[in-house]
Amino acid sequence: MSSSAHDPVSFDFNDDPTVTDEIVTSYDNRDQILFVVDCSPEMNKPEPNGSIPIKVAFDCIKSVTLSKIFAATSDRVGVLLYNTNMSNNPAGHEHIYILQGLDIPDAPRVKEAEMYSSEGDGDIQNTFGSTSKEYPFGNVFWTCSDMFNAGSISNQRGSRRVFLITNQDNPHPNQHNLRQAAIRRAKDFYDAGIRIELFGLDKGDHHFDESLFYNEVLAQEGGIDATQDEDVASQRVTGGGSNKVDELLDTVRRREPKKRTSFRVPLTIAPGIVIGVRGYNLIMPEKRSTPHRVTGAGERIEQVDTQITYKCQDTQQVLLPTEIKSAFEYGGTQVVFSREEINKMRSVKGKGIEILGFRRKEKINDMLNISLPSFIYPDETQYEGSHRTFTALLRGLLEKDKIGICTFTPRENANTLIALMYPQAETFDENGAQDRPPGIHIIPMPYADDIRDLPVTETPIATEEQVELATRAIFGGEQGGMEIKQIYDPNEFEDPAMQLHCATLEALALDKPMVERIVDTTKPNVDMINQTIGQGLKELRERLAADVGISEEDLRGQKRQLSDSKPESSTSRRRVDAGSKSIEDHYRDHTLDKCTVVMLKEWLERNGVKPKRVKIDIIAQVCHVLDKRQ
């Protein structure tokens, strides 16, 4: 292993060296979801557990609308009701009501969805009426198509999906002509690149049967344009999935995210053998949205248009972007590079993936993963035969239990990485729905310069008795304990800080009471731990305390002493020490970096100098003033 004297991030100019770059949502890749909700009398009947299907459907609408507000501000959501007495659509079709046209979600739309949800007192049946009268179901698809095609051409770009929620599995049991007309209309639907996601619900003991009607409707899915982005992480599986009303919200949440393509690159398997692949970021760190700068000087709050200009420090002339270059200090000399030169130095290969070889899985050190992986899937639009070749490669890796080693450059002017190609087989859950898609994970690996030597410290080694006691306490045995059978699932643990942030914004936007506390799923269940392995942990603690010569009374006394005294941290002590000396003393002792930014700024202001923002620049200002006094 080695360490580098260079700063490895110095050349990362306006770019992330990892592969997990965020995808900027544009009109070409935005997601459009139209909720189509059945309002028939059967959807308004309470289930045995008390839940009403139509209200649960609006719970889903509210949840998706809120998620779009926080995570995808350019996506559009709409709501269409059918089997209503009232009608509201451009074509004048009966029993079809457009509640919300396709548009960017906002607070009024969330409030309207909440009014008809389980939390609200609104009643869809009393407001819009409800009917079980048979009418051409193809008119529902017709109205959906009109809603997607309305407006400008930009509204017709990106993915377009219909979330159909109903418990009626056969809308035309005796009308063959109406049935065939609806199926033909569904084919036109798919030819236009619109995808249907069916959420069929059971009615009491009657299981929703897709084979009666919807299998023929959904069979048209093969007509989707191959250039459309596919949601590889949640593909529909005919039959199987859960149809329970109380699980509808979870099902919608799983299908709602749209996996947008992160990159399209060629995959070189061997000289002369090249296929096309698409890359997806299946895992992305959740981040708070960037706040906008606004002004309230006018009648309403408006967003500020930010403009940045650069001036020459000597002449104060405004500089054009082409006149600005980057300089790096090397050996006391400023080495200047243009943006184009920096981009050329950062990439040693053109964009793409090139396989270098293969190794067995057990030969790979799992600890060398330095970044989030990307997931690649074949792209037939780049090279014909990519699906077939990619499938053969994936099957070979799985059968031989091998991992590929490759170079990975996700886009032009990006850093070239060494990466692992980890194969993943398709799996299904207990309901028959796809759990994991087939494909290959691209896992970035470190270079030699990225690996650092850690200082070797001597640590106490536990005795065999201590290890046995700890094992018995945690995993079970004669003295108690339990066997841990639960598999870690990251979907069960939400970021508490992010949840509180979103709940606060939601409360302010919807005029709700502020949320002071949220359920923190990351905290351990102390009561459960005490009930299952509490006695074993107590014995282990007493044994360890006895081995080091500390009694239980002394241990409790030390805890009380620590909680009462609350000593200052080393950082606080350093600040006190720094504050006891003057800036001039620190200057002579070469310890200005020990001073706080507040101390340095106050000193500069007293000496008539406007302080800069960055601490290193502020220290340079102080040194410049004191150098003149010498």
From TrEMBL:
Main location: nucleus
Region (Disordered): 555-582
Compartments where located: Chromosome, Telomere; Nucleus
Recorded superkingdom: Eukaryota
Example of a GO biological process term: telomere maintenance
Gene3D superfamilies to which the protein is assigned, alphabetical: 1.10.1600.10, 2.40.290.10, Ku70, bridge and pillars (4.10.970.10), von Willebrand factor, type A domain (3.40.50.410)
UniProt biased composition (Basic and acidic residues): 555-567
Residue stretches making up the Ku domain: 316-462
Keywords: ATP-binding, Chromosome, DNA damage, DNA recombination, DNA repair, DNA-binding, Helicase, Hydrolase, Nucleotide-binding, Nucleus, Telomere
Family affiliation: Belongs to the ku70 family.
Protein name as it appears in the record: ATP-dependent DNA helicase II subunit 1
Organism: Lichtheimia ornata
